[in-house]
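Researcher: Please predict.
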Amino acid sequence: MKKVLIISSSLRGGSNSEVLAHEAEKGAMDAGHEVEFLSLKGKNIKFCIGCLVCQKTYKCVQDDDMANIIGKVQNADALIFAMPIYYYELSGHLKTFLDRCNPLFPQQNKFNDVYLITSSYDDAPTASDRAVNGLKGWIECFEQSRFAGVLVGGGVNEPKDAANRKDLRQKAYELGKNI
């Protein structure tokens, strides 16, 4: 059994990436894993100010919701990030979140496998490539971690379009089940 943390970074209610993230959650739970679903929607997450105090103290000087989230990331065995693709790149909210994980850099962390679920209007298989590369850059900072896979949820635009796509929902479920 693994401890799986799913982080949804979409700010849109009923978003396609969140629909797919919930399917991955079901798959991981059916596989017997301990799963926590965390939405960044409504969370107060400030930009990293680059002071690097966290490299010595292992905590950020800023007082926001990241203080309660960072330990969850550190203690998870597997991470699944879910996000919409905007302009073929990491969403701003997820990028800000990843930057704020800087206190984890000098520490021992449990997470080994990191997955990405994306949703986009563009249904090309390459629509998420830049976002994947951005996440891989973050992962490379953690020696014990590896990029374990991506689900490219293309061809969805309106909220909950993914709910009507059995193929995408099944792929998301299988991603969670195979962690």
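Model: The chain has a mean pLDDT of 96.
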